[in-house]
Design goal:
CATH architecture of the largest domain: 3-Layer(aba) Sandwich
Mean pLDDT: 87
């Protein structure tokens, strides 16, 4: 049975619901195209625990997928289908590119913020979220202990220091119950959009990055006001070309493409951005920072480097097992802290990939140094007597023992504890010392509080 719109040939199109009552039949609700569920959609089998989620991600890429070959910046939209419950089927996640929403960026790269490609994607409704038109059924209200004000996920206050909120329960035209807040709070999607940008590391193609990030988003079930973005750079498709990828991560033309993409985010209405960098993606981002900072807003009084262009706020910079020299990061930090509101580093003592990187580079990597006691003391004081440990959250993931690969290097998108902690960091914007439900401080780092998988009863 199908309920929804049909095209002139009688095929499902637009938003619709498919119900198949057989044993492995699906209850599928979402967007259809040419009679095929194209996404975003959610699908659940009748008599199994299998649940699949398809969502859309906007991407920018200057990689052809071949060995370290760079091309002009391409912008597009992809539909990524992932398993989230029950069986995780072989071959998933699956990526389908929207051909009508992709092409090379022909905007003027010499003018910061001039790219309109992403704005066109939003204007033409090529990007969609499954919950865009659903009534709101939950709200997250948190206290900003630094400012002593309230934060509501997905809303901005019209008051400078909001301390109160009124939450109402009402009915929609279709008699569905929904939540609403008083007029002093405005939906973030109406006045300022917010986004998450993922930058991958070594041995990734564009589709690899989309699959990994899509799985993370599907498990996290992020709110619809957070728009997902991926930037793919020529990171090689073979770990044997490590040094070549290191060189490409410092390529200025590749950095300019990233600046063009982030400038396009700003032009499309994105005002706040959370950046997630995995492995060598941290090196790529930090090497490009001198070029990128023109499009970032400074923390002090919201200053801009150039008043002629719009700028974007970097709320969270998240490093996942970062492959970058620790000493260099310490020297970079004084400049980073002028633009980045929060920096969080997730690291694992067992990380085999970074142990190999340490030997290859003959220097301590950031991803291992921050959980290594003799090395972490270097973060305590630099030349300006700045205590970096008070400003940077370090989360030691060495206690996690589920969904680990043999290298302990790339599990952030499938480990439930990691996904939930990243969700709370990004959505509620709370630092590690406030995320007390799963993190506890041990000396200079935070560790997960959990029972090992080997324990089945106590």
């Amino acid at each position: 049975m199908y309920e929804g719109h049909l095209d002139t040939r009688g095929r499902p199109v637009g938003f619709g619901t498919w119900i198949d009552t057989s044993y492995q039949g699906e209850f599928l609700q979402g967007i259809w195209k040419d009679g095929i569920p194209y996404g975003p959609f959610e699908s659940m089998e009748n008599d199994t625990r299998n649940v699949l989620v398809n969502l859309r991600i906007i991407y920018g890429s200057n990689s052809t997928g071949q060995f370290l070959h760079r091309e002009d910046l391409k912008v597009g939209v992809a539909c990524v289908e992932s398993c989230v419950s029950g069986n995780f089927f072989k071959g998933y996640p699956i990526v389908i590119h929207l051909t009508e929403a992709q092409g090379f960026c022909r905007c003027n790269r010499d003018i910061p913020g001039s790219c309109t490609c992403i704005k066109t994607i939003f204007d033409n409704s090529h990007y969609k979220h499954i919950n865009d038109d659903k009534p709101m059924s939950s709200l997250t209200v948190a206290i900003d202990t630094k400012e002593d004000v309230l934060n509501i996920t997905g809303f901005h206050s019209l008051n400078k220091k909001p301390t109160t909120v009124t939450i109402n329960l009402s009915k929609t035209k279709r008699s569905k119950t929904k939540l609403s807040v008083d007029e002093s709070w405005v939906s973030a999607s109406k006045i300022a959009k917010e986004g998450i940008l993922f930058i991958h590391g070594l041995n990734h193609t564009l589709d690899d990055a989309l699959k990994r990030f899509g799985q993370f988003l599907a498990l996290g079930n992020f709110p619809p006001y957070l728009k997902p973005f991926v930037f793919s750079w020529p990171a090689s498709t073979n770990v044997c070309y490590y040094w070549c990828a290191v060189g490409m991560s410092s390529d200025n033309d590749t950095h300019r493409d990233l600046k063009q993409f982030i400038g396009g985010l700003c032009r499309s209405g994105i005002r706040k951005l959370h950046i997630m960098c995995h492995s060598m993606g941290a090196r790529f981002f930090l090497r490009s920072f001198n070029i990128l900072r023109d499009v970032f807003e400074m923390k002090e009084n919201g200053q801009k480097n150039d008043d002629s262009i719009d700028t974007i706020i970097i709320q969270n910079l998240i490093f996942l097992n970062p492959d970058y020299e620790m000493n260099t990061f310490i020297n970079d930090y004084d400049e980073l802290r002028k633009y980045i509101h929060n920096i969080t580093i997730y690291a694992d003592r067992r990380d085999l990939a970074l142990k190999i990187s340490n030997r290859v580079n003959r220097s301590q990597s950031l991803g291992l140094g921050v959980v290594n006691k003799p090395r972490i003391d270097k973060l305590t004081n630099n030349d300006d007597n700045l205590n970096l440990l008070n400003e940077i959250d370090i989360v030691d993931t060495s206690d996690l023992d589920r969904n680990m690969n043999s290298q302990f290097h790339g599990y952030f998108n499938i480990n439930r504890m990691m996904v939930d902690d990243l969700w709370e960091l990004i959505v509620t914007n709370t630092r590690a010392e406030q995320r007390i439900s799963r993190l506890k401080r041990y000396g200079t780092v935070f560790r997960f509080t959990l029972v090992p998988s080997s324990v089945v009863m106590v």
